[in-house]
Design a protein that fits this description.
With 460 residues, the chain is of the alpha/beta class. Helices cover 31% and strands 24% of the residues.
Amino acid sequence: MSILIKNGRIITASADYVADLYIEGETITAIGENLNKEADEVIDASGKLVFPGGIDPHVHLEMPFMGTFSSDSYETGTLAALHGGTTMVIDFILQTQGKSLRNALESWQGRSNGNCYGDYSFHMAVTDFNDETKKEVKEMIEKEGITSFKTFMAYKGALMIDDGQMIGLMKEVKEQGGMVTVHATNGDMIDTLIAKHKAEGKLSPLYHYLSQPEITEAEASGRFADMANYSGVPAYIVHMTCEGALNAIRRAGSRNQKVYAETCIQYLILDASLYEKDFEGAKWVMSPPLREKKDQAALWAGINQGLVQVVATDHCPFEWEKKLMGKDDFSKIPNGHPAVENRMELLFSEGVNKGKISLNKYVEVTSTNAAKIFGMFPRKGCIGIGSDADIVIFDPNEKHTISAKTHHMNVDYSGYEGWELKGKCKTIILRGQVAVENGNVRIDKGYGQFIKRSKVPQNV
């Protein structure tokens, strides 16, 4: 199979030019003006932007949580991602305390194998670091190509590890050439505030937000940065939401300590006022919660300053009936919201079109930086000879409206219902195959591949 893309405006993290792209098999084999190539399919991209396929390194598909599962399967979640220009996701395997990393991997493979439309990989969340777990780190990196290990500084009793375990894991992951990522919030402080609010009869979604003030994230982010500095491990903070946490890694940078940071699209464009909508605020109950306008401004600035390298989603949808589990107690509301299909178009419309980020920065934070940090570049995250032909052909002028009635995520509401956007993904190519064209799916379930990742992150 060969594809010739004509006259597109190609945008990468560092370039902006008009050219043709030639794809043979799964890879890009030629880039240039007026390419004289025979192709099985010719796509005229005149007036369109051509991006590398989006990479969302933070999703939760079919994730077990509070007696239920997040509502997008590997089938529906990766297909929805493709519709929105994201050709690859990285999901999180959650180790069960008392059981092995291998046991967790096999559980997740049982749900993902043969079911994905888009490409995918895994992070391994370590919830029980001990001598046996330590032995498995090398195996995960070298045999399975899982090179990033997530830790939780909250959710005591289920996911959280203590600082001693954190240091132990960091040292072993450093030794084996991997990376440690973190959910950086102070779980003890949060648990105390949750108990206080519940004891006072304060049970609405607003108190989910008020139980996780900025200091809980700022403190944990600084502590994690200090431990990473001590151990020397490559480090990455997921879903950063606030100015205080950003300042913590800014201070780390002042002592020549690199801590990568990811924010999510919701923290850039939504704020905590949504929690005042009575129980409707449950749509946006996630951890960490939405923050304030000043935090949005800090995060946009952090992106442009290079302090925030990635914009992800933390996509973890639950149908409305599941959210109703917490109707009388905010602590029982399943945490998460749907966004994997909306990220690329929202960030373009709200970021590029409003002058907050450049086109090159857009490609950096939606694709290239994630590929570099997580060991996939230059196979993924760029438009170059020999790279996988993961391509988004994008109409920067098409207007459309987000709605649960038209999205492809397996959830019955949208966190962005009625948002009017300018800019739409038109044709999405995955490893040399047209996957989605004008909303029509042209590949089969199972086309998505598991992508093994290499060890050391490249500097970004």
